[in-house]
Write a structure and sequence with these properties.
single chain; 337 residues; alpha+beta; 28% helix
Length: 337
């Protein structure tokens, strides 16, 4: 496949739109939130969010259902960004430009949110956004945020039996994830090609290799896999295979091929998201739950850092509350009311 990832301007115009939007959104409160989203949104704006929000196609819904309640609950909300890059979307033939931002939204948890009891203490909501930018407007957004991660910090972890480790997750080891300036085209092409090779391996589950040997094809031995709360973080291929990849594959059957809405890279960073990325049937025990025999959807964002010719770090957002809802299991307090 002919991989193409940057334009002549290095996506500086699109990056400036998103940075201006984030700066305005982070400053504003109350009814001003709606005005900011309206100012930066194009016609036909579409927003995809983590359960219980789903797909929203109205600016006021995005403001009233997500941003305004979140800002009321997490007072003094601030954005702590770790990764920022842009690129052309391989999925649509490199026609659309997407800008990616990942980090944490930090605040004092002073009011209930989604039925979660406030702690009066600092909490960090992991987030990742993919913004499709057309002209000087945002036409489409996918925003995933790890609500169970926030719940665990507030002492209300819905997934206490993780196979790996729960912790507040740092940004890149190299501290170079904010790509504010244009990056060499060849570097982005290498990153995207490597991500594609990894996705091809992952999507098959039938290479005929032992799991660790399969992972060694595209990952550094000391890889860091920053998984969602309920699964957790793993370090090294050996522990990742033991603490997530192996148990996950053992628990599921009838996995569909991987499908994405956007997949892109710039410099040594890249990522993708799907809606869903794939479906699979829960045929074994997973996260402390018995098999249901039901097929569930996996809505996932993955962000990667490449080091040399292999992947070194991976930040993963999986909408586990949505998946478990498809299995008849409620994980958020508001689901059970």
């Amino acid at each position: 496949m002919n991989v193409r990832v940057v334009d002549v301007g290095g996506f500086q115009r699109q990056k400036s739109v998103v940075r201006a939007f984030h700066a305005a959104l982070d400053r504003v409160a109350g009814d001003g939130v709606t005005g900011v989203i309206e100012e930066f949104s194009g016609s036909g704006f579409l927003w995809r969010g983590y359960h219980p929000f789903g797909v929203l196609d109205d600016v006021r819904d995005v403001s009233d259902r997500f941003w305004k309640p979140l800002k009321r609950s997490l007072s003094g909300l601030q954005r702590r960004e770790d990764v920022f890059f842009a690129g052309l979307n391989e999925v649509d033939g490199f026609k659309s430009v997407w800008v990616v931002s990942m980090g944490h939204l930090l605040g004092l948890f002073d009011e209930p949110w989604l039925g979660i009891r406030p702690s009066g203490k600092i909490v960090m909501l992991r987030y990742c956004t993919f913004h499709r930018v057309e002209g000087d407007r945002i036409a489409e957004t996918a925003m995933y945020f790890d609500i169970p991660h926030l719940m665990a910090q507030a002492g209300q972890n819905p997934f206490p039996d993780a196979t790996a480790q729960h912790l507040v997750q740092p940004g890149p080891l190299t501290h170079d994830g904010l790509l504010l300036d244009p990056q060499p085209e060849a570097e982005g092409a290498r990153t995207l090609s490597l991500i594609n090779a990894m996705v091809a391996d992952l999507g098959n589950w039938d290479l005929g290799l032992p799991l660790e040997e399969e992972l060694e094809r595209t990952w550094h031995d000391d890889m860091l896999w920053w998984g969602p709360t309920g699964i957790g973080a793993s370090y090294t291929i050996e522990r990742y295979a033991k603490q997530h990849a192996g148990p996950f594959r053992a628990a599921f059957g009838n996995r569909t091929r991987t499908g994405h809405i956007a997949r892109l890279a710039e410099g040594r960073y890249g990522g993708f998201f799907g809606w869903p990325n794939f479906t699979a049937c829960l045929t074994g025990e997973f996260m402390g739950h018995a098999p249901t025999g039901r097929t569930g959807e996996f809505r996932v964002i993955d962000i990667y850092r490449r080091e040399g010719g292999l992947l070194a770090e991976n930040w993963i957002f999986i909408d586990l509350p949505h998946f478990w809802k498809t299995q008849g299991v409620d994980t958020l307090p508001e689901d059970a009311t």
